[in-house]
Description:
alpha/beta, three-stranded antiparallel beta sheet, 7 helices, 11 strands, 33% helix, globular, binds iron/sulfur cluster
Amino acid sequence: MATFLFEEIVFGPVKSRRLGVSLGINLLPVDAKVCSFDCVYCECGTNKEHRGGKLPNSSEVLNALESKLKEMQSNHEAPDVITFAGNGEPTLHPEFATIIDETLRLRDAYFPKANVSVLSNATQLGSPRVFEALKRVDQAILKLDSAHPKTIALLDRPVSSAFNVEKLVEQLKAFNGKLIVQTLFTRGQYGGQHFDNTTEEEIADWIGLLRQIRPESVMIYTIDRDTPIQHIEKIPLEALQQIAKRVEDEAHISVSVAG
Ligand code: SF4
């Protein structure tokens, strides 16, 4: 299916389903994908089909960001959020922490009311520099697609065999509530294996982890654009809303739903 790559370091602003008017920052190559997961639903395609590319350095990122912020300021166009997303996992960038601090400085100078958000798969939380940088942003939006290692292996396909859900939960708890958990719900088939993170057992165990992590909120969503594989389902909005209600009733955590 037709997946796509972001072809710029700074992209948008775009109207995001989850975040509002979002100015995007892609810390990954503009012609390749670099990620520590290889999710079956990734809109950028598989890691294998988009290898190579060169990471932008911090000066390239910050110059591109400042020139876009100047342009938006002169057009009286304010972003709700500056979002680190793009062609893979932003926290893999070796200068991630420095870029975050400089972005916070530029945000304060140009659009102090805008949030700085990072969409991350949470695989690099073992790095103190990444963990501390994520604690400094307004919204660290961290992926937890399932409580079950087998489902994560099928759905998110971690590149490293060292990925461990129990360790991840301990790392997420260390944010002391200053994080947003993001979860994509889907079901389907890949490589002869069935995956479904919407079953009763999946939802009950996932809510159990949310009760331990106590994030300030949860974002749930489903596939929106083309994915690398064919046999994958979009979950109906009503089903997502039922999941959200369960989280609110059982864990008392607010949930936003993007169908
Ligand atoms: S974590 Fe995000 S960028 Fe990485 S493979 Fe999954 S969806 Fe794609």
